[in-house]
Prior knowledge:
Strand content: under 5%
Amino acid sequence: xxxxxxxxxxxxxxxxxxxxxxxxxxxxxxxxxxxxxxxxxxxxxxxxxxxxxxxxxxxxxxxxxxxxxxxxxxxxxxxxxxxxxxxxxxxxxxxxxxxxxxxxxxxxxxxxxxxxxxxxxxxxxxxxxxxxxxxxxxxxxxxxxxxxxxxxxxxxxxxxxxxxxxxxxxxxxxxxxxxxxxxxx
Length: 185
């Protein structure tokens, strides 16, 4: 019995020796993070540069639609001319005119698609330039305010208004990049 008691006491000390260092470890000291939030979507909508892109885009779209309308009108005129001549043309002449008309329609569609692709590319580049400036301004403000972390507003559900640096970024952005040119080639 004595041997058994001695064994239990030794085992208990052994377990305590193993557990003790784990329990004695101090947690890492808490550090305070300096965090801010920025509403990038608001900046892409409300900044002077974003508004200049929208204004240019409205003008470009209007001109583009006028070109499309003129092209459609021209094709409709050609189609009516073929329809009017249908009874007076020989079958092979009619087929040739229809084939030529279909080629004109295809060429017109291709031309419109190419212009739309160029427009999309120009708008994408303009927005990219605006986004790059936003990132630069956020980084500069973050450095000046010794921020450890800046989150996009879309990633945050609830935030205190005093953590939001959107207005600071907007003021700086409007001063440094009041407009962006949409280049359509």
